[in-house]
Amino acid sequence: MLLTETLPEGTEVMIYQTRMAKKGRINRMGHDLGHILTKEATDKPSVWVQELLLLKGLSRVYISPDNPELSNELLHIEDKAHQEKAGLWAEDSPFISLSPETVINGMGEFSIVEGTVAKASSVRNTLYLNFGENWKTDFTIMISSALRKKLAQRGINLMGLTGQKVRVRGWIRDYNGPLIELDTPEHIEIIASNSPLPATPNNATVPINH
Hints:
It contains four helices and eleven strands; from the N terminus they run αββααββββαβββββ. It is of the alpha+beta class. It has two domains: 2-86, CATH 2.40.50.90; 97-196, CATH 2.40.50.140.
């Protein structure tokens, strides 16, 4: 209903896609990916459709490794809806953020988990953030060496996250307890200061259609 009202037949829009022409513009299902902005009219301001859906709590942010543009903006908008308990963030919603204690409820699903890091350890250059005393059963975030380098380039000391509260999003699977393997730097946030990790440069999209 909201999209029907926002984008009635005949609505002129601008579509923006990632700068990477060979990656990130089409997903594995063959769907075109892009940000939609309605054209401004004398009686109607322009609307960024992704922002509208997030503010209403009708969607969650997922950042593709090949399509990272505007990630900080999207995460801040989602956080506003989260704080206001809008839509998916209502207290009785099954989509609210999980904790290390309730993460088992999201097994096999894309979920958002918030918790305090109990310990950070490195095994053969892969980093593990553990959220309990028993790494064989507790919730864990696994971060590859490649992503460690990207996060280090942003000034993030992952080994120094012990005792800090973080928010991570991804697919939860069973590997010595519930685990999320981080697939892009944008999917982990330090929320003690309520802010996402620093963004990469050139965080912008390019128009591809009118």
